[in-house]
Amino acid sequence: MRIISIGVNTSGRHHTPLCACIGYFDGMHRGHQALIRETIELAKKNHCESAMITFDPDPVVTLKGLNSTTHITTMRQRMNLAVHFGIENIVILKFSRDMSQMEPEEFVEKILGKLNLKGLVCGFDFRYGCEGRGNAESLKEQCPFEVECVDAVTDAKGKISSTRIAAALDEGDLSEVNGMLGYPYFIEGTVIHGNHKGTGMGFPTANVRYSQEYRLPKKGVYAGFAIVNGRQYKAMINIGHNPTLNYRQTVSIEAHLIGFKGDIYGKYIRIYPLYYLRPEIRFQNRDNLSMQLYQDRRTVISVLKDYE
Predict the structure, then answer these.
(1) Separation of alpha carbons 21 and 37, rounded Å
(2) What mean pLDDT is predicted for residues 223-232?
């Protein structure tokens, strides 16, 4: 994978012939994957490499003057998923106030013009240039290369979109989320030390340091999986504030890996919450919490029995 970074003041031109898709690609959902497939086919037709053009930071952050915002996937995930789906190059446009104020023609000439594009793929609703005045049709008129526009990808409920996926995450409906993504939603991070209270109760957990960029699923307990050291484990996953024994202001992610023994502190981990089991509860005492955890573990094993 080659990463190409372009800003308003970037000098020079990249000479590698490319066919690229363009967008923000949060979630890398089935609609985005349709753009990627079209891009790969266009690259084959033009005998050149494929690329994904995206923006950093999120244009919403720049346009609304925010410090940050949350996403279904981090930039790292989007890049890795793009490569997984067959993209060879990642082009990151350093989105600034100056770039946001470019007229559509100027954006095509001074930003896209820094690439040796032989073809470009966009979604039917793609907008660019100052106040979003450019669209798919103007892109076709202004670009001196082939432009393909991909229609919406739909399911029984309508257009698949990052907005719909975010709403399903807020409801804890991971089945709906995964159906629109076309792959299992996951959170990745590093295992860190917690207060070890779970260990003392017979439920050691992997506490995950994760990017604050994530738009997390609904708070509560989930059945799912964790992958660490290249192995997959059934997992009882808690996303929330730990209200009974160790309340935290920020949301924590902890996973009890069923059948795991060992030390994984500092290791990279992927968490796959699949089924929402229950909300977080503040129990009256440690014993009540312990009884519920034993029940939760039995439920997780039962729910995941078909995933042997």
Answers:
(1) 10
(2) 96
